[in-house]
Amino acid sequence: MEKKLIPYSVHLPEPIYKRIKSAAGDRKASSIVREAITLYLDDDKHVGAYNKALKDAMSIIKKDLNASTISIQGTSISEILCDQISSLIKESNHAKKKG
Length: 99
Hints:
This protein is mostly helical. 65% of the residues lie in helices and 4% in strands. The protein is built from six helices and two strands. The protein has helices at 14-24, 29-41, 45-63, 65-69, 77-86, 93-98, and strands at 71-72, 75-76. Strands 1-2 form a two-stranded antiparallel sheet. A hairpin with a 2-residue loop joins strand 1 and strand 2.
């Protein structure tokens, strides 16, 4: 589900910059900015937050050693769960208008 990332420069007031750096903690600040922009651009902010929660859940499952090593009929539990969760991801109203 990873997509190619294209660099984009944004100029921020220093107080906002410092808050982002602080909020990012151990994560890269660019990921926090990317997530915020994605949530903002979704027409339905609840859809954006819902999709982010699903993607976060899939990320946790993919990192779990047990879920990745236990298989059912040749497919890891991690893959099975992530496939089921990804089917719940909703398309934003913005994306529907373009298509």
